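Example 3.2
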Amino acid sequence: MLKNHLDAVTLEKLRRVFIEAKWFTNDVIAQGPFNANYMTRKVQVKVIDRFETRNITVLSSQMRQSIIDVIKMDILNLSKAKKNGKKVGKLKFRKHVKTIQLKQYGITYKIIDNLHIRVQNIEILKVNWLDQIPQDAEIANAQLINRHGDYYIHITTFVPNETKKLNGMHIGMDLGIKTQITLSNSVKVEYQIPPSEKLKELQRKLSRKKRGSKRYKVLLARIQKEYEHLTNEKIDIVNKIGSYLVSNLSLVSFQIPVDNFFLHSSKHRPGADPVDSTTHDNDKVCFVYHFQCEHLGLIEFQVEALSAMA
């Protein structure tokens, strides 16, 4: 979102909506989401050792509904984790709310053109990259995100499935540390994203600030933003590699240690039964599993284990 194209009133509304989201979230957690009323316009906010009543002016009713639904889902996930034997606690109050769900296109938010989007109670915002959404895409929900002082809108769309033409090519892939990816056709992929000089300078400045002070928090936010840039570069590299493999290959296979394979829960395994197995002279059995990956297409796992006859 282009902050330099937003006036002071709109920026204040964006700042206010996330503050109100935090107030409303903590109020719902305090009284329980199953007793919460999304129509309420007043919430209780704890200030040091007392409670104050604050008015909700920017956070819309559908945003409040989404907050209640998210808290209900959090409680449901905690309940499932507890049934699975994990140690869980109760929901904690939030220091910050960084994401607000925009649940209904056309009411909570609406795309006006390739540069503008309207959000309920916040007016029209100028944004980038709306032209990436295909014309035939079905627009679903979205998220209004506050990340390191910048604002983003993530939009979920559904596009028709494309039938991919497979060329029948099969390649093996080995993942490493020094050489990140080695392919069976002798192609090696190496990449490094070193810390920037700006990041090093910010870290030196942070070490001289008092922890918890205002300047400390400002520098910490700038450092987090720099780390996010580095992470985005790494994700971009991985996405480009994955796009190349999907576009040029029909099957990708690689080998993983048996411990890393069988220690995962069954829902994350490629399949219940191997499609093939081979016993080697060193009393090891190589099981072959096939898995349809959302990003890489058909993947073949080769898992080595000691033979039962050993």
